[in-house]
Amino acid sequence: MSEKSRALPGAAVAAVSRSGYPEPYRSRVLPRAVRGLGDAFGLTRIGINLVTIEPGKESSMRHWHTREDEFVYVVAGTLVLRTDAGEEQLEAGMCAGFPAGARDGHQLINRSASPATFLVVSNRDPEDTAHYSDPDVDLMWSPPNARGRMTRRDGTPC
Prior knowledge:
The chain has helices spanning 26-29, 37-40, and strands at 15-16, 32-36, 46-53, 63-65, 70-76, 78-83, 86-91, 95-98, 107-109, 116-123, 130-132, 140-141.
């Protein structure tokens, strides 16, 4: 981004492929391309990421946040939204939102044969905790672990 312009193409933001998840969860989400659009503009109170996930991959483990709202907008492709209510297909142009504190675990899954891209927007609350909804996913993320480290639900290291 130049000093004169406050705009840039999203594709100009470098894509990273990383995850704070330990195995066996990490391989369920990687590889993926995450472009930190909000970071590119120095935004500190909201997170805005453009994410592309490959066929057979998941956006995250099914989770909910105590203090962060989340909004997703499908830009390209087809994704399955999985929540406590079940599954529904999201096509390009569709969106979904998850209020902070709503104990409705959610995730996106790419069951199609092509990559899918979505925009995710959330507030950045330093006191947020993420709870994982699937009984087989023994993870928790909380502020003391804000450096990207996860713990088991009982607080022990992964």
